[in-house]
Design brief:
alpha/beta; Beta-carbonic Anhydrase, Chain A; five-stranded mixed sheet; about 35% helix; globular
Length: about 180
């Protein structure tokens, strides 16, 4: 059902915007990679709030813009963006009212069981750690910046900034200035 809606919308899009479309480079024009959350409130809102348009930036998303100790897909993507695509700055953007900051493993366990996941499978993992739940959004951004900067495959000359985004009004707050300048309170 949803797939049919998507395919119909795509057919309209391709026909309607054919004259406006042009080929873009894989390399981001602004030489920036943005690591942020997958929250639906950021779709078509975060980029314009940053002045980012199609072709300007590499955007990497996951639940809660979290970098876990045992999983470096984010680092892998950032390294590819730096070494293969010309990225020269990184923005880590968390957002206020992030669902991952309110992770309730009891509710999560119940939902998994409703979908037929056996209890013994659910119990194999520390779900809070596996999903990357956290309690402090600003601390999560600081942590992600620190992990990116500390990784042995990320060059020290690449500035890594940390920001908080308000999904209600689009306002940005600098948490970590990657240029090494103090933040304004």
């Amino acid at each position: 059902m949803l797939l049919e809606e998507i395919l119909l919308a795509n057919k309209f899009f391709v026909n309607e915007y054919r004259d406006l479309l042009r080929k873009f480079s894989h390399r981001p024009r602004k030489q920036v990679a943005i690591f942020t959350c997958m929250d639906t409130r950021l779709v078509e809102f975060l980029e314009p709030a940053l002045g980012i348009k199609r072709g300007d930036a590499k955007i990497i998303k996951n639940a809660g813009n979290r970098i876990r100790e045992d999983c470096d897909d984010v680092i892998r993507s950032l390294a590819a963006a730096i070494y293969l695509l010309g990225v020269r700055e990184i923005l880590v953007i968390g957002h206020l009212d992030c669902g991952m900051s309110k992770l309730d493993t009891k509710v999560l366990t119940e939902k998994m069981a409703e979908f037929g996941i056996p209890e013994e499978e659910i119990d194999k993992d520390d779900l809070a750690a596996w999903l990357g739940g956290f309690s402090d959004t600003e601390e999560n951004v600081v942590d992600a910046v620190a992990k990116i900067k500390a990784h042995h495959l990320i060059p020290r000359i690449i500035p890594v900034h940390g920001l908080l985004f308000c999904p209600d009004n689009g306002e940005l707050q600098v948490v970590v200035n990657g240029y090494g300048q103090p933040e304004k309170g």
